[in-house]
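Appendix B. Raw example, untouched.
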Amino acid sequence: MTLYARSRRLPASLAALVLCPVVIRVLAGADWSVVFASLALGASIAVAATGLSGQDVDLDRTAAFGWFPRRLVHLVVLGALAVGVLLAVQASAIPAAVILRDGLGLVGLAGLAAFAFGGQFGWTFPLLWIVVALFAPHDPQGLYEVVAWPLQPADVAVSWWLAGTLFLLGTGVYAVAGARR
């Protein structure tokens, strides 16, 4: 387990996972909103997702044990820690359901990015989606609810469906196949 943690740079990832929401919360101050909460959660998951593979993926695949449970636990714990830290930092200003939904979707995106581009690029999809959501033009009906799902209120069903689908797809693909070489 120690070798696994070292090869995935877990101590540095955990430190960055905690620092991102704390720093963004302090900088946002009284202007704290769902925009800053989504940005903090996206940054937190993105920096921690850089460790979704070891230094040598081919060497990892020669191991005599199955990687499925380790990959699944790694991704789920990463998301749970990011959500937990943000909930502790933001002091109930944003509904917990919104943060939980966003955490599910962003962790799924991190798994998809690690599968598509490699573990060191696990940060790309979560951070890219948050940035696109922040700058998407507001359209009261239609595509905005899909593109900006992390910024939607908790009662928007489309955002829950999309976050759930991304979580199942991303964690499933990453847990089964792992990171790309």
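End of appendix B.
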